Amino acid sequence: DTGVSQDPRHKITKRGQNVTFRCDPISEHNRLYWYRQTLGQGPEFLTYFQNEAQLEKSRLLSDRFSAERPKGSFSTLEIQRTEQGDSAMYLCASSPTGVAYEQYFGPGTRLTVT
Amino acid sequence: AQSVTQLGSHVSVSEGALVLLRCNYSSSVPPYLFWYVQYPNQGLQLLLKYTSAATLVKGINGFEAEFKKSETSFHLTKPSAHMSDAAEYFCAVSSRPSGNTPLVFGKGTRLSVIA
Q1: Which among A29, B20, B53, B90 is least buried, having the fewest CB atoms inside 10 angstroms?
Q2: Do the chains contact at A42 and B49, CB–CB below 8 Å?
Q3: pLDDT digits (tens, 9 = 90+) for A36-95
Q4: How many CB pairs under 8 A join A and B?
């Protein structure tokens, strides 16, 4: 069990550019979640997957955001035409399927849009 | 919709003193509740969880929390604070009663420990 990993850990980009983040969950975990955390706030849910199926998307996930989990393993989160308001920590979490399982979080990707 | 309220954005205690971080939830049915800790520039680490078994839940690092349905509370306590406990603490509830669903987090409480 190597834990949830995220890449990159930090990303600085200019407004209008596209960025992509990667999340590698714990290997046997079927569920994968994306959250966004802004300064001084708790994480807010963005979207989640059961294997390769995207089960739910938050209204926070505007049409500039897209997430995939093509083979049910790693996932990517892409933000197109970044805005300064997208600056945040993007957290990935994974869990086994089952009612009472907790989510295991990765270290996050900190995005700064200049 | 489920929601969580953490009373006090910042709590400061002396080393060795009792730690009490407050969390109230709103849910129409007994929820799944969690406490996570976050150290600077890191992800979240689970401290403990309530899944409708025992109402007093023991977690890691000497923390525990008591589920009180009548008060819709799930406060986090530790008898004796240590300098290493200084961090941000988040209470969270499963967004739906079925569990293992997206979490709804409180805004967090920053714990400072004074030597």
Answers
A1: B53
A2: no
A3: 999 889 999 999 999 999 999 998 889 999 999 998 899 999 999 999 999 999 999 999
A4: 65
- CA distances to A5, A45, A64, A102 from A9, rounded to whole Å, are 9, 19, 21, 23
Per-residue pLDDT of B55-81, as tens digits, reads 899 999 999 999 998 899 999 999 999
Residue B88 burial class via C-beta count within 10 angstroms: exposed 0-12, middle 13-18, buried 19 and up: buried
Q: Can you tell me the distance from the alpha carbon of B38 to that of B46, in angstroms, rounded to the nearest whole number?
A: 9
Give A72 or A25, the one with higher predicted confidence: A25
* Three-point CA angle B67, B18, A103, nearest 5°: 45
What chain B residue is nearest to A107 in terms of C-alpha separation?
B43
Rounded to the nearest 5 degrees, what angle is found at the Cα of A32, between the Cα atoms of B50 and B40? 70
